[in-house]
Amino acid sequence: MNAEDIINNLWLEKDKLDNIVEQDRARGIVGRVIEMLDNGEIRVAELINNEVVVNQWVKHAILLYFKVQQMTKYNIGPFEYLDKIPLKDDYASAKVRVVPGAIARRGSFLSPGVTLMPSYVNIGAYVGADTMVDTWATVGSCAQIGERVHLSGGVGIGGVLEPPQAAPVFIEDDVFIGSRSMIVEGARVRKGAKLGAGVILTSSTPVIDSKTGEEVSRGDVPAGAVCIMATREKKFDGGTFGLPCVLILRYLAEGEVHDKLLLNDILREHGVAT
User: Fold this and answer.
1) Which of 45, 90, 169, 261 has the most other CB atoms within 10 Å of its CB?
2) Residue 240: CA atoms inside 13 Å, Cβ hemisphere, count?
């Protein structure tokens, strides 16, 4: 049987893994799959025909890994950790820059050219080439980050490990995420989009076109869209309140890049920055 079939069979019998003997038997098999994740040989999710396809068996492997691993003490310099999952290492061979204070768990994948400022990358996450994970940014379990992405300071990217069939957050290539933004619940930001500071995008957040006032999607930012956080009014029995939405100011023309200065110019152009 291939790795997928073996993991799926173990998942069906996961209740038996409370037995120490069964844990020992499964640990090597599950560990090999985690190693494949760690090396980028497999992914939790990927784009196929422009749709996010979840490799559910890989999520099963991660959940089984938590079940069969033992709590272990790790000492790294002056710091002590007690966890079931060791940290990644050998960043030089991976051609990844890691600043002191950055942490990536084993089973995450960091492509060549990635820079980790003091930040956190969880198991199952995939970070594409030449991406910047800036200070205090977090990349949750199973989150998928494309190439040449900039996750600004304090950005929170949710993962979605459970339920196994649910799609994780997917950030496509050439995206800019402004500081303190939160992208969670399997939301998607498509190629080349720019999100200003403080944007909160969930799977149910309305994405609205400022030119038409129409809702274009829920939790899915279109390619090349330049967006800010906004509110729209809704009447309730107790009064009228502003509900959060993501507002598209405009779309980038072909060839416009996702540098921070251009984003600031666009915000000034629309009167939402000084």
Assistant:
1) 169
2) 4
Q: Nearest CA to 88 among 96, 80, 136?
A: 96
The tokens describing 16, both together, are 């038996």
Could you tell me the end-to-end alpha-carbon distance of the chain, in angstroms, rounded to an integer? 61
User: Residue 210: CB partners within 8 Å, gap ≥ 6?
Assistant: 247, 248, 249, 250, 270
Judged against a pLDDT cut of 50, whether residue 274 lies above it is answered with no
Q: Which residues contact 148 (CB under 8 A, 6 or more apart)?
A: 128, 129, 130, 131, 173, 174, 258
- Give the C-alpha distances (Å, rounded to integers) separating 19 from 6, 24, 97: 18, 9, 41
Model-level pTM greater than 0.90?
A: yes
Question: Mind giving me the DSSP string for 187-225?
Answer: -EE-TT-EE-TT-EE-TT-EEEETTT--EEEESEEPTTE
- The owner of tokens 């120490």 is 20
Question: How far from 168 is each of 59, 69, 179, 190, 213, CA to CA, in Å?
Answer: 10, 24, 21, 14, 28
Q: Residues 34-43: what's their mean pLDDT? A: 97
Residue 272 CA to its chain's centroid (Å): 28
CB atoms within 10 A of CB 112: 12
* Separation of alpha carbons 225 and 207, rounded Å: 10
Split at pLDDT 50, 70, 90, the class of 84 is: very high
Q: Give residue for tokens 């950005």.
A: 155
Beta-bridge partner residues of 80: 75
User: Environment class of residue 114 by beta-carbon count within 10 Å: exposed (0-12), middle (13-18) or buried (19+)?
Assistant: buried
Return the SS3 of 1: coil
Domains and CATH numbers, the chain: 3-68 (1.10.166.10), 88-269 (2.160.10.10)
75 membership: H or E segment, kind and range: strand 72-76
Which of 213, 163, 194 is closest to 59 using CA atoms? 163
